[in-house]
Fold each of these.
Amino acid sequence: MKVWVDDQRCRGHGVCTTLCEEVFSLTDDGYAVAIDSEVPAQFEAATEEAIASCPEQAIVKR
Ligand code: SF4
């Protein structure tokens, strides 16, 4: 699984980074980005939780 943050939707709440800091991080601009590579298997559940929990539905699988 790979994920991507839609920067047109992200409002920088940081829910995703709180749930899975190994996959998501906040940039200096205050928006989230996801790691570019495949989500490691051990973080897939937390990543799915972040997708479901994002208030802006800004995280998409790709
Ligand atoms: S939870 Fe959603 S809106 Fe908040 S920082 Fe993460 S991607 Fe952006």
Note: The pocket of iron/sulfur cluster is lined by residues 5, 10-16, 32, 54-56, 58-59 (CB under 6 Å).
Amino acid sequence: MASTQLLVPLFLLSSLIMLSGAYSATFTFTNKCSYQVWPGILSNAGTPQLPTTGFALQPGESNTIPVPTSWSGRLWGRTLCTQDANTGKFTCLTGDCGSSTIQCSGNGAAPPATLAEFTLNGADGLDFYDVSLVDGYNLPMLIEPQGGTGGNCTMTGCGASLNNACPSELKVMDSENGESVACKSACDAFGDPQYCCSGAYANPNTCKASSYSEFFKNACPRAYSYAYDDGTSTFTCAGANYAITFCPSPSSTSLKSANGQYPEAVEVSAGTHRTSPYLIGGAITILAANWRLWQLFF
Ligand SMILES: *[C@@H]1O[C@H](CO)[C@@H](O)[C@H](O)[C@H]1NC(C)=O
């Protein structure tokens, strides 16, 4: 017969085991654009998959997705998508993942596309995240950590609308109406190793900012503008959920830019710290399991 001395460590052990698996983060996607956006999600190799790899978001709509611990991968927004009436093929003018369906199913974004990159529970248990314009730009996107601590746990992204301001040699046009729908990276546009940080330029000493990368950096100082832009572009946080917002601020659409500065005062939904429903669920599971354990012995 088990003694109470045995039950106490058993209680603690079971609590620990269940608590470690109980917390996972969430990504809340919100579309504040005036147009429909189809988020795409690509999980890195060897990382647990998310429950979806692509879905539609109407203007004003939000969708929250649970994210397993230690997930890593990238997220982006597809725009100007249509489904062919005859073939049923789903394609997007920007950010297309080539899957022919709304789900991206393991395919990444065709550049140019604004990318949000995450590594959860990485070095020192920190989440690493950034918004990257290294593969070009297609729409404004912001990452906002909620309820996290430590590191440099702040909002990042690119709130500016750059499709019209984009240098003409980098512009991607909608052939139907002549509107600029995306902005290529110089690497994508010219294939020059100097812009791509490849070949002799594949290290931070030789690959430097260019006038093209500076166009992106001036508009969006917190976003990656070329491959070795790490110092000002990588952010860290622990225990946070993340809000991912397309077109964060309506005023950013008219960001012909007060001297090219990032709009620091972007509109942010009141960021009160919330208790994760997963944490509450985990706590209830632990209580229930321990109750059963006690009943077993008394
Ligand atoms: C954030 O902190 C990390 C180290 O945890 C550092 O490498 C990075 O440069 C910092 N980012 C910014 C934008 O200061």
Note: Residues 221 and 277 are 34 Å apart (CA to CA).
